[in-house]
Design a protein that fits this description.
The structure is a single chain. Helices cover about 45% and strands about 15% of the residues. Strand 7, helix 8 and strand 8 (about 170-175) form a beta-alpha-beta unit. By secondary structure, it is of the alpha/beta class. The protein folds into 2 domains: about 10-75, Winged helix-like DNA-binding domain superfamily/Winged helix DNA-binding domain (Arc Repressor Mutant, subunit A); about 85-195, Rossmann fold, CATH 3.40.50.720. Helix 1 packs antiparallel against helix 4 (about 65-75) and helix 2 crosses helix 3.
Length: about 220
């Protein structure tokens, strides 16, 4: 299959397909149709077929999809058949919570280090990983072949720290700092604003309440 540009909308749905297929696999389901998957995921069957056709289809006429095969193929597309080493910059509540999240390892993301500038946090431990001072950041990245950095620091320092990370070989940043990062081409950034999800939830609650009252 020739490489082609896949829309971000399709890519954003792949982890959800992967999660549902993993659950089906764990339940012993061997095959599933696009219609059955549609009913589970509340995505139209035609959308599912269109999404999978971007990568070759995977299904067989009259058979549907082999769950185990499709699960592993999506894992390959997402790069989950490889391991990726990551560090966390910021050992506050959020950083520590992410460091304690065991599911990262199950997906091939290896938690290698955590850093903070607060001397009261340096030397403490997160799941057996010692919090190191920021002065050791560059050396640690080079010595441990770190690809990904997770930023859980205040926005005031996030841009400067992101530049340090990129200048020392970090290829991707999962950014929880409350500022959108603009980095050189080729550096992958996923900006996560937790409050945005809450505001979206607030909108939907308000909208539902208005519709209920009008009804």
């Amino acid at each position: 299959m020739e490489d082609k540009e896949i829309s971000q909308a399709v890519i954003s749905r792949l982890p959800r397909y992967f999660r549902y297929l993993g659950e089906l696999r764990d339940e012993g389901v061997e095959r599933i149709s696009s219609q059955e998957l549609s009913e589970l995921m509340h995505v139209t069957a035609s959308q599912i077929r269109q999404d999978f056709n971007n990568f070759g289809g995977f299904g067989q006429q009259g058979y549907g999809y082999n769950v185990d095969y499709l699960y592993h193929e999506i894992a390959k597309i997402l790069g989950l058949n490889q391991t990726h080493s990551f560090i966390i910059v910021g050992a506050g509540n959020l950083g520590r919570a992410l460091g304690n999240y065991l599911n990262f390892e199950r997906r091939g993301f290896l938690f290698k280090g955590i850093f903070d500038e607060n001397p009261d946090l340096v030397g403490t431990s997160v799941r057996g990983v010692c919090v190191k001072p920021m002065e050791e950041l560059e050396q640690f990245i080079h010595e441990n072949d770190i690809e990904i950095a997770v930023l859980t620091i205040p926005k005031t320092g996030a841009i400067a720290v992101a530049d340090r990370l990129v200048n020392n070989g970090i290829r991707a940043i999962w950014n929880f700092a409350h500022v959108d990062l603009s980095l050189p081409e080729g550096i992958q950034v996923e900006n996560v604003h937790l409050s945005d999800s809450l505001m979206k939830l607030s909108y939907n609650i308000t909208k539902f309440s208005k519709e209920k009252n009008q009804g």
